[in-house]
Amino acid sequence: MAKRRTGGDGAADGSVAGLIARCASALERSGACFGHGTDNARDEAAALVFHVLGLDHDDAQRAYRLPVAEAGLQRVAAMLDARISTRRPLPYLTGEAWFAGLPFFVDERVLVPRSPFAELITTRFEPWLDPDRVRRILEIGTGSGCMAIACALAFPGSRVVATDISAAALEVARRNVARHQVADRVQLLEADLYAGVTGTFDLIISNPPYVSAEEVATLPEEYRHEPVLALLSAEDGMATPARILQHATRFLAADGWLAMEVGGGAMLLEERFPSLPFLWPEFVHGGDGIALISAADLRASECPATP
């Protein structure tokens, strides 16, 4: 996912840029962990300040020079204190995260969007797919709905089915579907993976749980605010990805593709399915760990299926 960068240098202390610099210093001293839309203290501070003051990221250069009134300073200080004292990811405090250039409501019922899937969606999965031929898309484990909604907007001639086992997560997804006015093309379904899904799809996407119990136990405190159901998977994190793969051929069109994120588990996935010729895209804006495989290759490899 392309990260927002908002910074300014050499500004007076009373300016927005000066306030960002002070917030960044406080975040660095606090030992806060970044990784929920930003990856450093400077960008996190800028996101916090711009949100609290209602500033436009597209007008950042002018905004850096603006003076900050006392009331604004107090509001920024309050949110900075909450970020440091609670270790809640900033998007949970602001109620908003960005994905594929789009804003989404988020809270602790869902993961904070941060997947490199955003780049695949905005480039419409080319060159693997012909975007004009994509009519049906399935997302497994939709969470906030950000990927399903971004796909609906990237493929305006398509319909999207998005499943999630969490009723609470689907409440958030419904709010975002309504916000982006795609309720006529995005169907939300409470289901464990493919349960209740019918028909075939040109594209199946998933950012499933793929973190092992051992790794979950070592995550920084910020990550402990996220729903463990969306992170934790058995068998070194590969149990859920394996189930998705083992049933995918039933739901993929003959020329369809499956795209599934496994993060740092790429080697584990390849070891578990040595006959599958996964493709691993490289991303201009950073990130890795998304496996692509065609329906034809899945069928040719005779991927073992579970009952």
Walk me through this protein's architecture.
- The chain is globular and about 65 Å long.
- Helix 1 packs across helix 2, helix 1 packs parallel to helix 4 and helix 2 packs across helix 4.
- With 307 residues, the protein is of the alpha/beta class.
- The longest helix is centred in the N-terminal third of the chain and has 17 residues, at 70-86.
- Helix content is 36%, strand content 15%.
- It has 2 domains: 16-94, Helicase, Ruva Protein, domain 3, CATH 1.10.8; 108-301, 3-Layer(aba) Sandwich (Rossmann fold), CATH 3.40.50.150.
- A 6-stranded mixed β-sheet has the order 5-4-3-6-7-8, with helices on both faces. A two-stranded antiparallel sheet has the order 1-2.
- The protein contains 12 helices and 8 strands.
Binned strand content: 5-15%
Low-confidence stretches: 1-12
CATH architecture group name of the largest domain: 3-Layer(aba) Sandwich
Shape estimate: globular
> In which order are the strands of the major sheet placed?
5-4-3-6-7-8
Q: Give me the count of strands.
A: 8
Can you summarize the main beta sheet?
A: 6 strands, mixed
Structural class by SSE content: alpha/beta
Give helix % range: 25-40%
Number of helices: 12
Core attributes:
307 residues, alpha/beta, Helicase, Ruva Protein, domain 3, Rossmann fold, 6-stranded mixed sheet, two-stranded antiparallel ribbon, 15% strand
SSE blueprint and pairings:
Blueprint: H1 16-30, H2 41-53, H3 60-64, H4 70-86, H5 90-94, E1 96-99, E2 102-105, H6 117-122, E3 136-140, H7 146-154, E4 159-164, H8 167-179, E5 186-190, E6 201-206, H9 213-218, H10 239-247, E7 252-261, H11 266-272, E8 290-294, H12 295-301
Parallel strand pairs: 3-4, 3-6, 4-5, 6-7
Antiparallel strand pairs: 1-2, 7-8
